[in-house]
Amino acid sequence: xxxKQIEEDVRNILSxxxxxxxxxxxxxxxxxAHIYNVDVDTAKRVGMAHDIAKEMSKEEKLEYIEKNxxxxxxxxxxxxxxxxAKIGADIAIKKYGFTKEMGKAIxxxxxxxxxxxxxxxxxxxxxWTGIDREITDREEINDLAKVNIDEAILYTLGIExxxxxxxxxxxxxxxxxxxxxxxxxx
Length: 186
Known about the structure:
Blueprint: H1 3-13, H2 16-35, H3 40-49, H4 58-67, H5 74-78, H6 83-96, H7 100-108, H8 118-129, H9 138-147, H10 149-166, H11 173-185
Helix pairs in contact: 1-3, 2-3, 2-8, 3-7, 6-7, 7-8, 8-9, 8-10, 9-10, 10-11
């Protein structure tokens, strides 16, 4: 499906704030795709569609994963907000004709995953660094991503894991595995 159609769909499904976030992520995906030699149209479509399931209710998410045989671990079931990534990937593949690689990028954009491809890395960082984000280190992360995307991901995973610890929340294993993978790959 063409970007214009996906963008219209996202505008109709999500709130204005979430739609704006998707546009901001798409813009960063475009910029990073140029730097890392990834197909720009593919990166933009993934950026626009990445949060397509974000505003589903917990009940809708749990029902969707059951109906579509999507595996969810205990942490994802307890924190159903994480499920939007897996559901969004499934929707994008089925509804928009995204490739498996594009689906993997959407699936990994919240927690990260070990051995992410470049498209997944771009979306993961773009979700952190869109201009709509009020993150103290956003500019620093964005600048780092333009030079060394793996270091930028390590930095953001560190922030996320530290925050989860400080807030006494569970840390999804994919974030830990992604961090360890990147550290071992140095």
